[in-house]
């Protein structure tokens, strides 16, 4: 099936639920069994069948099945948040004495987890240049067990050469994990590019309505899948059925929403490129973006999230711009139907590749509003910026 068909049908089994189109919300902690034999059968298949609430319900299992199918994987794991999915992946694969290669442009809380929790566990993290490509082979050691990618990168939107990185990692027996939240399963097919585990903050585009926290991990290795499930159970990670239901609801409209996000984002990004206050737009879908060639080779679309570098301006000027926005709200998440704007100046940590831009920087998430209204809002904001004394 094509992906538009998969997002409509994957994980749906009306025949199991009296013809109901959607898998119902199962609010359950306890699962009972009529016989000892049935309890034993369920226990032996606890990763795939409801056995105890912490292992999952029919609602969460349906979400796992659907996301795995859309992303092209055999197995899916639902987690209470995107950060939970990242932490569960790292804690499942890595042990004391292991070495992790982490992309330098990674989501900030992931970096914090590596520098705090993993360091305390005796796991070494080396941050690598997101543009390293096949050159990552020089950083591999006998202790390297995982290479973690995020493409495009958080806040700065560098596109990684995932196939080249995966080939180098697999030569030494290391696994490759990817944070695929920006592209979603529809715009990047991780398992055709050499990725072993794909992670999403499903809070973002899968849920799509800014009303639930959710994470997913998809993969093809059965043994690793069961290890992930064991990690989640041991740490008490339990995805709520209400959240899983909202994730399934969002998944059904993902294709239509992403198409609109992309169309709107391109219109806004192209307009911003022509504004005198803007130095550069960080969006791989733009032909003059440094990552455009890789994006065009490996991706099938672009989402609504991108960065903006402003020409020199004071903090007071940027504040004047942001404080008066009408359609762009200030908020730390993204992926919902609404447009968001966030100042990122001073919040772009780097270890391997210094971030040298000295002017203000912004992150925009372009929602489903009419792009002409969004452009008018930004124009008014830039006018406030220029009127404010430096």
From TrEMBL:
PANTHER family on file: CYSTATHIONINE BETA-LYASE-RELATED (PTHR43500)
Broadest EC class assigned to this enzyme: lyase
Protein name per UniProt: Cystathionine beta-lyase
Reactions this protein catalyses: L,L-cystathionine + H2O = L-homocysteine + pyruvate + NH4(+); an S-substituted L-cysteine + H2O = a thiol + pyruvate + NH4(+)
Residue positions where N6-(pyridoxal phosphate)lysine is found in the record: 204
A GO BP annotation: transsulfuration
Pathway connected to this protein: Amino-acid biosynthesis; L-methionine biosynthesis via de novo pathway; L-homocysteine from L-cystathionine: step 1/1
Family listed: Belongs to the trans-sulfuration enzymes family.
Keywords of the record: Lyase, Pyridoxal phosphate
SUPFAM superfamilies reported in the protein's UniProt record: PLP-dependent transferases
Molecular-function GO terms, alphabetical: cysteine-S-conjugate beta-lyase activity; pyridoxal phosphate binding
UniProt-listed Pfam families: Cys_Met_Meta_PP
Enzyme Commission identifier(s): 4.4.1.8
Cofactor names: pyridoxal 5'-phosphate
């Amino acid at each position: 099936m094509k992906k538009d068909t998969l997002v409509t049908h994957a994980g749906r089994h009306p025949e199991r639920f009296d013809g109901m189109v959607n898998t119902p919300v199962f609010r359950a902690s306890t699962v009972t069994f009529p016989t000892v034999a049935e309890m034993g059968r369920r226990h032996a298949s606890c990763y795939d069948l409801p056995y105890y609430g912490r292992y999952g319900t029919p609602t969460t299992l349906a979400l796992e099945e659907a996301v795995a199918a859309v992303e092209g994987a055999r197995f899916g794991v639902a987690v209470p948040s995107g950060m939970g999915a990242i932490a569960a992946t790292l804690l499942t694969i890595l042990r004391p004495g292991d070495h992790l290669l982490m992309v330098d442009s990674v989501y900030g809380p992931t970096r914090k987890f590596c520098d705090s929790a993993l360091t305390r566990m005796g796991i070494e993290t080396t941050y690598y240049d997101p543009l390293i490509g096949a050159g990552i082979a020089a950083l591999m050691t006998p202790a390297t067990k995982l290479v973690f990618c995020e493409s495009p990168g958080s806040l700065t939107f560098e596109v990684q050469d995932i196939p080249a990185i995966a080939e180098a990692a697999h030569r030494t027996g290391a696994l490759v994990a990817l944070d695929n939240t920006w592209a979603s399963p529809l715009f990047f097919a991780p398992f055709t590019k050499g990725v072993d585990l794909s992670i999403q903050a499903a809070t973002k585009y899968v849920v799509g309505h800014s009303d639930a926290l959710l994470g997913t991990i998809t993969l093809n290795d059965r043994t690793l899948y069961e290890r992930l499930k064991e990690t989640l159970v041991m740490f008490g990670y339990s995805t709520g059925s209400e959240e899983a239901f909202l994730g399934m609801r969002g998944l059904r409209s993902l294709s239509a929403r992403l198409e609109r996000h992309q169309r709107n984002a391109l219109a806004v990004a192209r307009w911003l490129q022509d504004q005198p206050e803007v130095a550069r737009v960080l969006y791989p879908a733009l032909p003059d973006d440094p990552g455009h060639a890789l994006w065009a080779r490996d991706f099938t679309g672009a989402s609504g999230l991108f960065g903006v570098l402003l020409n020199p301006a004071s903090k007071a000027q940027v504040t004047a711009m942001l404080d008066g926005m009408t359609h762009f709200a200030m908020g730390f998440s993204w992926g919902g139907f609404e447009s968001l704007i966030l100042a990122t100046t001073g919040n772009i940590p780097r270890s391997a590749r210094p971030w040298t831009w000295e002017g203000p920087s912004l992150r925009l998430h372009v929602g489903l509003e009419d792009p002409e209204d969004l452009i008018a809002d930004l124009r008014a904001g830039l006018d406030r910026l220029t009127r404010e004394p430096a």
